[in-house]
Amino acid sequence: MNVTHLYCSSCSKEYKPRELYNLCECGKPLLVAYDLRAAAATMTRESLRGRVSNLWRYREVLPVERDENRLTLGEGMTPLIEAKGLGKQLGMSALLIKDESLNPTASFKARGMAVAISMAKELGVTKLAVPSAGNAAGALAAYAAKAGLPAYIFMPNDTPRANIIECQQMGANITLIDGLITDCGRIVGERKAAEGWFDVSTLKEPYRVEGKKTMGYELAEQLDWKLPDVILYPTGGGTGLIGMWKAFDEMEQMGWIGGARPRMVSVQAEGCAPIVRAFAAGASAGAEITDAHTVAAGLRVPRAVGDFIMLDILRKSRGAAVSVTDSELVAAVKEIGSAEGIFAAPEGAACLPALKKLIARGEVDRGESVVIFNTGSGLKYLDVF
To answer: Which residues of the chain fall short of a pLDDT of 70?
Structure first.
């Protein structure tokens, strides 16, 4: 195993590997550190060519030690599609869409849960709990079922019906709450000790981000190890953004890529844009949005525990944070579908109007290479349309 220790993303306190943790003592997220020299001895760019087409192809930089604990439903290695139709409309020559809707449970959440639940199984967890706006719940329900573990899920009443039905059919224990995902999170936090639950909330355990970081490895591999100029990423809890940035650093340390990084762009809905507001204000963390509202359920995260990490990434990369209206992101679903044949989730579709705004502001040049992340399938959101 190549894990050397865990460390706090804020105070840098180190923790021993192979023990159960949620947050650091200071209340901030923990991240996983690897012996990358040892990893690079067996995992090379060339060796990947003959490996399985799922995220476990990067096993040397993932935390699960034993093969029998690596749960898989076929997650990862999603297509990177050349968006010729949209590119032509926008006057762009290098616009790509990374389509995460083809993951199990039809969203990128499968990546994080595959690794987190595999580690939970390896470390002896007996019950799992999560607050969710929808897609994380579906992914937890699926991988918990695969692991043979009970899942306790708390979701807002107005979670897309498809997500609720999905969790029911996977055998999860579901509680609907009159409130937001933050209210669901408080319930999990208050009850987990008494109920014996292990909390797999976004960035409140160290391993979901490890699954999400494989998006960065895949993107580099699919682009022949040359990263794009700009990445637009729909941001709720932000685990994917943080994970990809971590992947880029790991790849550089292993000698796979150089020091150049994409400009990272956080895309949010105007009704719930804590990162956009904090970025514009020059703040190091986001204030909680008390009246959070948007039809893009995955973007309705009033405050993210890893907000300070995201803001640091945006600034280090010379990136941006952009909000779009619900009407803009819903219209973009049809625009993407009509031009590219991809039925995008509203969250992923939000990246298109955000890109248009960046072009209009002169912050993205039409000649640059740009990757949009579609994080899920529009089929989960039929009630929105």
So the answer is: none
